[in-house]
C-alpha cells in the first residue's frame, strides 16, 4: 500500500567498494539523517541483463522507496534535497542551485572522461598509457578553470562565508563538497598548488565536512574510499 511504501526506508543501488557517483546521494541522505540501505550485489544483472523491472533506468546509481524508483545522480539529489529539507528558499536560488549543480556534474564528467581517452566505456586500467595525454590536458586546461569558477560562485553569496545560495545548507552545497573531496583525492599535488586561488573553497570544504552528521559519516564504514582514478 502507499502507506506501507512511505514507511519503508530508502534503498540505494550502486557498484560495490567505491565512492563513485553514489557519493553525491549518500551525502544528502546522511546530512538529512534519513535512513537508507545500500545494495551493491547484483548490479550488473539489474541494469545490464534486463532484470530491472520498474521504471526504466539506464545505469546506477538508483534509489528506491516502496514501488518508486529514480535514477540519474543530479536528478536524485534535487529530488531528495526538496523532499528532505535541503532546498533553496527562493525561486531565484532554486534556479541558481540548479545551474551550479549542473556545472559540478559537468566537472566530474570531464574529469572522468580524461581517464578514458581511448574508450569511454572501458576500464581505465586497460588504457592507462593511452589516456595520459588526456589527463594532462584536463589538469592543464580545465581543472583550475572549474575550481576558479566554483570559488567565484561561492564568493558571490555573502562573500563566500556561508553557502552557495541563500543562508542555509542545500543539496548543491553537498554536491560541491563531494566534488572538492574528489579533486583532492584524485589530484593532491594540483590541489595543494592551487591553495591561494581556492581559499574560500577550502574553508567551505572544512566547515561543511565538519557538520556533525557528515563528520560521523566520514568516520564510518559506510563511507566508501575513492577508487583512485576517474575522480571516482
UniProtKB/TrEMBL annotation:
GO terms for molecular function: glutathione transferase activity. Coiled coil: none annotated. Pfam families: GST_C_3 (PF14497). Its EC number is 2.5.1.18. InterPro entries: Glutathione-S-Trfase_C-like, Glutathione-S-Trfase_C_sf, Glutathione_S-Trfase, Glutathione_S-Trfase_N, GST_C, GST_superfamily, Thioredoxin-like_sf. Keywords: Transferase. Residues 9-88 form the GST N-terminal domain. Residues 90-226 form the GST C-terminal domain. This is glutathione transferase. Signal peptide: none annotated. It comes from the Eukaryota.
